Amino acid sequence: MSLFVGEDLEIAGIMSAQITEVTFGVPTYGEVEETKVTMLAILHELMAGCGKVNIANDAVVCWAGSLAGKPVINIVAGTGAIGFGIDQHGNQARVGGWSTYFSDEGSC
User: Fold this and answer.
1) What is the CA radius of gyration of the chain?
2) Which burial class, exposed, middle or buried, applies to 10 when counting CB atoms under 10 A from its CB (0-12, 13-18, 19+)?
């Protein structure tokens, strides 16, 4: 996530009020319950005037963007390693990706 969302929008010539909906993929989102409200509040502030602000773990956004939301599994193995998928019934599963010290098998 760019910490310079306002600058990014300005460069693109877009005001946040022109955006009807946005989804941010944030590493670690959903892993610590107490941070969910804080993260969403920060993104609402960054996107003031935007119609709807969504937030999801970056693995979910990676799956949705790379596989067009189809019921399959997406595996990322690079600097970190994580697997996320959704089946044809909407059931979700995620493995790995917790940190470099715990459950990041397959990462660099």
Assistant:
1) 15
2) exposed
Instruction: Give the C-alpha distances (Å, rounded to integers) separating 105 from 25, 67, 75, 84.
Output: 22, 22, 12, 14
What is the reported pTM?
0.72
Q: Where are the alpha helices (DSSP H) in the chain?
A: 5-12, 35-46, 58-67
Task: Give the residue from 54, 52, 66, 60 showing the smallest Cα distance to 85.
Answer: 60
pLDDT 10s digits, 10-51: 899 998 889 999 998 888 788 788 888 888 888 888 888 888
**Residue 88 to residues 66, 68, 72: CA-CA distances in angstroms?**
17, 13, 8
Core vs surface per residue 72-90: b (16+ CB within 10 A) or e: eebebeeebbbbbbbeeee
HSE value, Cβ hemisphere, 13 Å, CA-based, for 48: 3
